[in-house]
Amino acid sequence: MVVSINANKTCVTFGICSVKTDKLIGYAGIASISSLNRSGEYFILIGNKAYWGDGIGTEVTKVITDYGFNTLGLHRIELTAYANNPAAIRAYENAGYTHEGLKKEAGFRNGVFIDKIMMAILAPDWQGI
């Protein structure tokens, strides 16, 4: 993976490469990092659908979460997922994230408002990878 940290240290981004092809297939990281609150927001995008459903999302989420807690010293990492994306929600659950709430009609895609699921994990609850 390749890492990029912005100048004010509020975001860290990693490239996701396929083990089989060594090609870049997406990116993931932690944004909105608050050193005061020791928190940040996880994000991921795997652009090529051929790589969906293979557990890559779960594994990347675990790696980035571990980095957030053990390298950045965060206490809390949160995320939102579209309610109509059960595969993403399952990947986050498999990585240890728990549901915290629902943001009604917080996203707009293809002319429709969609609910978002709020999820998070705290450092004391992190079991590692």
From TrEMBL:
Q: Which residues form the N-acetyltransferase domain?
A: 1-124
The record's section on Pfam families has: Acetyltransf_3 (PF13302)
Keywords, comma-separated and alphabetical: Transferase
Is the Transcription regulation keyword given for this protein? Answer: no
Q: Which PROSITE patterns match?
A: GNAT
Which GO terms fall under molecular function for this chain's record? acyltransferase activity, transferring groups other than amino-acyl groups
- In the UniProt record, does the keyword Hydrolase occur? no
Q: Give the organism's phylogenetic lineage.
A: Bacteria, Pseudomonadati, Pseudomonadota, Gammaproteobacteria, Alteromonadales
Protein name (database record): Acetyltransferase, putative
